[in-house]
Design brief:
The protein has about 550 residues and is α/β, with parallel strands linked by helices. The chain folds into four domains: about 160 residues, Pyruvate-ferredoxin Oxidoreductase, domain 3 (3-Layer(aba) Sandwich); about 180 residues, Rossmann fold (3-Layer(aba) Sandwich), CATH 3.40.50.970; about 70 residues, no CATH class; about 110 residues, Rossmann fold. It contains 20 helices and 20 strands. It has an eight-stranded mixed sheet, sandwiched between helices. A seven-stranded mixed sheet has the order 9-8-10-11-13-12-18, with helices on both faces. The chain has a five-stranded mixed sheet with strand order 15-17-16-19-20, sandwiched between helices.
């Protein structure tokens, strides 16, 4: 498995270089996983990508580098310490690093001789491919550039890649790509595709990093998919539009980050009161307030579980990896429709912006739920008391009855009430949905040893790093390590946790927040306490290696 970092200032084309490289590697049959660390600015600053690739599927980054591509001197200086002794620093001749591992290359000069100074990044990509043993394939290169650029720019970029490939010697043996056909997808795109597979018809949002690419992708493909996409004036409008679309009979979703979700809270309660299906995506970033707009964190868990005043049933799902994002987005829409409640998809910047080569998901395997239909011959009551808590649902214009909705407490016909008895009936009816919902919860994924002595507990995007962490820990022998990674976090599935906690000598929660929010939730729901916590909250994702090291230190 190889690890490469591409660094430079905003505007120097590092993202384009990274996209070119990962596509070429993916088309070579290798696994690839790319994370993005970007500053919140248009020009300048220090941005970088970590590209990890090899013969197997990759689901997490690593901080030990085999190669560093430095588009400026700052990138070389900041990341040289992460480079292995046998690694290389590929840099432009004008910004050569003072390091024996430096490989100066006149990228800008080569680009100028090709007649386009902007293809220097393709020169760098060609050199990287040669350094890692990949042969130059003109047809493959043309296919890659054809996906990224206008037709008239393909040839010059192919020639630039070839020139870079000729300019350096091979450094490492080529990883033998034997993986079946894969698609390269970001977490946000996978989530959007899952929602489309489940029959999404309406999406509304106000742009907010790191959720914006969901809006962009759905808007760009709206003609092909036939859905309606609306960029609202703010997050309050966005969630209310989605509620209105759902009330009218459409499968609807809205998306934002934590700050925008804060504005959506009152309307979230409205969806609970009027029992309208709704999927709301919160792609987390560090807060509070503006926080770190382009970094990652897992600090909204307890917030979204209790967001909005009063009590009403909801479901919270945290996708664990790219294919899980597809699956959980489709499932969220189905669960919202089936139980007529809000479902919150709780992702984060790490998963949202990372790209991975994955097996193409099967959209035909998705089975959307149909609304509960009124019984034949029975007078229609929108909030009819039922044993399941789920009432029949029709849409405006249906001649079978009046599609009532009211934010005040109401009776089963949708008429405003104030008496305590009816309030109790309606409250208990709504909350009964949770009992049936608990029967459909997905237990957390168990990684590592099937009967662990030390159990690590995480959620959402911690899946990839924890998968690698328990592998590293178990390779050392001795203590048996395992990890439980939750995707459904509310209601909290408890069977696997209860089973494994009986035999585990110690449990550690591993989270990207300051207070250990999952540990608090587990203690609240089960009474189980962690021996210790492995936490990070600087806006950067923990790697498997870091987790393994910190767990070993905690165990000493």
């Amino acid at each position: 498995m190889y690890n490469l970092l591409i660094g430079g200032a905003a505007g120097q084309g590092i993202d384009t270089a990274g996209s070119t490289l990962e596509l070429y590697i993916k088309d070579s049959g290798c696994g690839v996983f790319t994370t993005r660390d970007l500053m919140s600015r248009i020009r300048g600053g220090h941005n970088f990508l970590r590209v990890r690739f090899g013969e197997e599927e990759v689901r997490a980054h690593s901080e030990a580098l085999d190669g560093l591509v430095a588009f400026n001197a700052e990138s070389a200086a900041l990341h040289a310490a992460e480079l292995k002794p046998e690694g290389f620093i590929l840099c432009d001749a004008s910004a050569a690093a003072d390091d024996p591992r430096a490989l100066p290359l006149d990228m800008a000069g080569i680009a100028k001789t090709l007649g386009n100074a902007r293809v220097a990044g393709s020169v760098a990509v060609g050199a990287v491919l040669r350094l890692f043993g990949f042969p130059f394939d003109r047809e493959r290169a043309a296919g890659v550039f054809g996906k990224l650029f206008k037709p008239e720019l393909v040839d010059v970029n192919v020639r630039a890649l070839e020139a870079g490939h000729r300019a350096v010697p091979e450094r490492f043996p080529q990883p033998r790509g034997r993986l079946p056909e894969r698609m390269l997808v970001s977490g946000n795109k996978a989530l959007a595709l899952g929602a489309l597979a489940a029959g999404l018809q309406f999406y509304s949002a106000y742009p907010m990093s790191p959720s914006t690419s969901i809006l962009e992708y759905l808007a760009q493909t709206a003609k092909e998919t036939g859905i309606l996409v609306e960029q609202a004036e703010d997050e309050i409008a966005a969630i209310n539009m989605a509620i209105g679309a759902s009330f009218a009979g459409g499968r609807a979703m809205t998306g934002t980050s934590g700050g925008g979700f804060s504005l959506m809270v009152e309307a979230l309660g409205l969806s609970g009161m009027v029992e309208v299906p709704l999927v709301a995506v919160d792609v987390q970033r560090p807060g509070p307030a503006t926080g770190l707009p382009t970094r990652t964190e897992q600090s909204d868990l307890l917030f979204v579980i209790s967001a909005a005043q009063g009590e009403f049933p909801r479901m919270v799902i945290a996708p664990r990896h790219h294919l899980d994002a597809f699956h959980q987005a489709a499932r969220a829409i189905a669960m919202a429709e089936k139980y007529q409640l809000p479902v919150i998809l709780l992702s984060d910047q790490y998963l949202a912006d990372a790209t991975a080569a994955v097996v193409p998901p099967n959209p035909s395997a998705v089975r959307p739920s149909a609304p509960e239909a009124p019984k034949e011959g029975e007078p229609y009551a929108r909030y009819r008391y039922t044993d399941s808590g789920v009432s029949p649902r029709i849409f405006p214009g249906d001649r079978r009855g009046f599609a009532a909705a009211d934010s005040d407490e109401h009776d089963e016909w949708g008429r405003i009430i104030e008496d305590g008895e009816t309030r109790n009936w309606m409250m208990e009816k709504r909350m009964r949905k949770l009992e049936a919902l608990k029967g459909e919860l997905e237990e957390p994924a168990l990684l590592g040893d099937a009967e662990p002595e030390v159990l690590l507990v995480g959620w959402g995007s911690m899946f990839g790093p924890l998968e690698e962490a328990v592998r590293l820990l178990n390779q050392a022998g001795g203590t048996r390590y395992g990890a439980l990674v939750f995707s459904d976090v509310w209601p909290l599935p408890q069977k696997e946790l209860a089973r494994l906690s009986k035999s585990a000598v110690a449990m550690y929660n591993v989270e990207q927040n300051y207070t250990g929010q999952l540990a608090s939730l587990i203690r609240q729901e089960t009474g189980l306490r962690m021996k210790g916590s492995v936490l990070r909250y600087d806006g950067r994702q923990m790697s498997g290696g870091e987790i393994a090291r910190r767990v070993r230190e905690a165990e000493q």
